[in-house]
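Assemble and predict.
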Amino acid sequence: MSLTRNIRRFFNRLFNSGSRTIDTRTDRESRLREEIAEHVALQTEDNIRAGLDPIEARRRAMLKFGGVESMKEDYRDECAFPWLEHLLQDIRFALRMLYKNPGFTVVAVVTLALGIGANAAIFSVVRGVLLRPLVNRDEARLLYLCQSDTYTTDVNFSVPEIDDLSADLKSIQAVGTLSPLDFTVVGLGDARTLTAGVVDGAYFDVVGLRSVLGRLIGPGDDGPNAAGVAVLTYKFWSTTLHSDPSVIGKTIRLGSYNGTRSATVIGVLQPSVPYPVETEIIANIVTSPHHLSATMVTSRVHRMTEVFARLAPGATLESARAELATTYAAMRNAHPEVYKPNDGFRFTVTRIHDQINSRANTVLWVLLAASGLLFLIACSNVANLFLARTVRREPELALRSALGATSGALRRSLLAEAIVLCGAGLLAGVIIAAPMVGVLSRYASRFSVRAADLALDSSMLWIGVALAFVATIFLAFIPRLPNTNTSHAFAVSSSGSRVTPSSRRRLRVFAVTQIAACFLLLAGAGALLRALFVLENSQAPFDTARVLAVNLPVMTDGRTPEQITSFYRDVRRRVASFPGVESVSGAMFVPWRDTINFADLHMQFAVDGAPKEDGKEDPRARFRFILPNYFSTMGMPFLEGRDFNDNDRAGSERVVIISEALAKQLFPGQDPLNHKLHWTDPILKSSSMSPESRRIVGVVPDFDDTGIIPDPSMTIYQPSDQEGLSGRLFVRAKGDPYALMPILTSEIHHMSDNQPVERASTLRDVRAEVMAPDRLNAIVFGGFASLALLISIVGVAGVLAFSVSGRLHEFGIRLALGASPRNILSGVLSEGFVIALIGVTVGTAAGFALARVIAKYTVELQIPGATPLIISAALILAAALIASAIPAIRAASVDAARALRAE
Amino acid sequence: MTPTNNPSSKKTDVLQGTLALMVLKTLDVLGPLHGYGLARRIEQISGDLLAVNQGTLYPVLLKLEQEGAIESEWGASENNRRARFYNLTKAGRKALQSETQDWQQTAAIISRFFEIKSEDLP
């Protein structure tokens, strides 16, 4: 039969419209009846004509026509899809059966819903954050250049480096640059600090973005004589400025650390992923005086700029990598004094997509793996319950098969139940997945800016459907069908369920799988919890709850450096006079929060008069600018010497305070006070810091303001007023520090109405904010692990309960022969314990194998220490014992007489 | 629960295949016919194929109709009662042609095999 005919037949069946006259089932039935009647009538008439008497004529006509009912059956099969109709019938039957077993149904549906929901939610996040393409034109051709050294993973590029790198490239069409900085902006509502970038004219064309309003910065805006122009990013424009179109053409003032410039707002950028910083405003280079200064343009080590590149047509990533690596190597060789072998300079080129994903990658894939394990556990669990139920239903299935049901029909009835369960699980799963996506995307936004604009879409539903489908197949085809041998079937149906060894083995395999997967999750969660525990337990060297940090960005607009210094001095004096204030100080960084810029930069220095050893590099130390009373405001004592005071100002003797680590390392066994040191780092040439000698006037305890877990490193403190910047205010309060905010804000605005007062927070809250990702990590994985544990307990309890109910007869005999209930109790308990033990062993082996495989492909995973492993194992074994307790008690309390009579 | 496949289904398929071809050919030669008329003609020509179980004709008719090879409408029978008349469609005529060809080819090959004697083979 030809294909087209089959297809036509299929559709005719589907719509039941083989001819225009055949419409409904009843029509067809009545038509057939009428045709049969007519057929028999005509045959009868022919027979009468042939000489038979009417009754005999009709009898012969009926005989000749043959069996009417079996013909009708064939006819009906021809009309529609008998298989489908039977399945629908089976589904109705399954619904009734499941309704009668609410316990089984609820457990199975909830388990499946958790498995499907968690996976659908996490996959949506993975897809939205990692897989979705960027809006940038031809994003696959957009590259990110990255330079790193031993001390920092991304050190940016200096202008001379960019000039060297981008000269005469064949595989690169164009190079665009962006230098991140903060602007204090006046003219867009309240004066405020905005995360900003200054870009060259090629930038927007290279990254391939459009404007939604006005125009973007182009080549015409390059050069020192261009007019200042600024582009707003979409998020800032739509949220902070409420999508006000009249902002185009406005003149604003942009303040950065070397002065303030005017700029005209010329456009709004399309919604896009900002990288590497969440820029709110992007301006041309002329708006930042520092970026036009001689040090910026000529110094090779003054690295402040990010470099993006677009592949030339026909070029591949590999060819670009090779060409850029050659160029970079040539540049390194030309300037050996800058790229010292010890500094470990490295250069990499990545697709921007991969670069943006790099942080979220591991976290999200690990999360997806965890949810995959959860799905495995959920499926195993439901398969267990299902299998147990099927075995218990064996008499019924055997009876049906004895009555003529084929194995296909029995399988179909199992399939119907699986479809109902998984369908309900899918529905519930999708319902719980929607809010889970919200939670997860908030979690993922800690690792990737892309999580912020994550939207729910139909892909989540499709994933759910696919998972439900997998689960359905799994459930419908795993149970073994009963033996169709009729006599055996009747023997079974009369004597209650007998558990076949192979079913029991399968049950055990599922239980072990669950325990193993659950153990992996628990161990992972345990490791994360321990990491969090270590963080939570690491103490700051002082009471952080009472120290308030407030950002008071430096406003350079129309002020001399002396005016700025005296403004901060006035602020300090006035705030110190507030009731409830113990101490006031200021600095350049808020500990733990302002770690992005050069808080982690270690600069080389030397002690005056110390012999210079050949081939040995000068030591490195962090530098901090602080104001008087910094340590007393933080609550740290002086080990030796004195604090800075108002006389340590520009023009007076240069002084420093050093950390204990520096004192111990460079002045072992001697008094460091009044020794002198000076900076020797090459970067000094391009900064305003002087290489002059500075006298040590004090020693303070080590204080790591970059990491939650303190890592004592050498630090040199300099007075802000002498040389350097301020911008952060610290207030030590007697009571609630936040209660000071209203009066503090109004006082500062009274002194200078354009002065932003931002991000007030106690240092304790700063630390909590920094630890939030770790806490979220632990909560998410802990949640997963406890779900898995719960499901596994249900699974183990189910297996044992089933095994016990199949062996009641055996227990009865054993009790009758004199076994004590205690024997039977411990027998069942140990059965559960052994399952859990095997599961833990398998889980450990699988975990180590998995870690090795993952390490081969992506990153080295940390194998959790012994403690979380042992605790997880103990937890699982204890849970398994508890889960076995109920069936064990039931087994031990079997009434021997009744169990025997059941035979 | 109805078993969907019984042991005799294979035989029925063969029978149905031949029957379908006979129906098409009969309608091609004689024009529109009702079910009984078709059954009688086929019985006359084929002998005992439809001597019993004439009812099996009706599922075949429905199948052909759903394939679009034939169409049907109500009409009046010889004794002026309502009867369903079947007629060949254009597609049915084409299907008949191609299947007749196939059938003749197959029959020719098979008959050649049956004519072979051992001395004919080298």
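The longest strand of chain A covers residues 172-187.
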